[in-house]
User: What shape does this take?
Amino acid sequence: MNLIERPGTDEAQWRAWAGLRQLPVADLTGWARVLVLAAHPDDEVLGVGGTLALLAAGGARLRLVAVTDGEASHPGHRDRAALAARRTAETAGALRVLGAQDTEVIRLGFPDTQVAAREDALAARLRDLAAGCDAVLAPWDHDVHADHEAVGRAARRVSPLTHWYPVWAWHWAAPGDSRVPWHQGLRVSLRPSIVARKRAAIGCFASQLESRGPGTGPVLTPETVAHFVRDHEVLLRAEAR
Assistant: This one.
């Protein structure tokens, strides 16, 4: 059983940890053009949906690169193309709710769960897409999901302005966990109205919130969603290697 499949850390533990409140505040001023990467539809809303809402409200130009369409989220699904189309529509709905409906969305169509095998090709595609951007937001390259990690690595390869966002780390890690580079962390504060928008945007991903079949629960359980409706989001500054 991998770390994602094991019982996770209760959100109450994260909210009680002073370490999150002590992170330096992220300075989003100057982020006029931002490239946002999602390994799967909903990654960007879970990880940085509030940040996207703030940036959009401030007039930033947002470009979202959906690396896969998330067609492998439901094992044994009889129509993966239909599932991919559904998840694509859910993303569009979520962006509208966030007030980021003008985001340029680019879908690469890489096979879900197989991004790591195509990391070089991904980096090649991202190099031009990242040119001229003031920041790149991508899943953390140690999130313990192979697709997330490949996208995070590719982002760092193409831009020194990369900031990672954790997704599954909130489930498998614990406050103060030495596996997480907290010294690279930044905090984006979210006012209540932005948190409400983000909560509603997460609600757009019905395919991930509902049961996937007999004996298979939702991808996003209430316990998981609780990690993403805080009054802040966390970014990890990617360190050059």
Summary: The chain has a mean pLDDT of 94. The chain has one domain: 11-237. The first helix runs from residue 11 to 16. The domain at 11-237 is CATH 3.40.50.10320 (Rossmann fold).
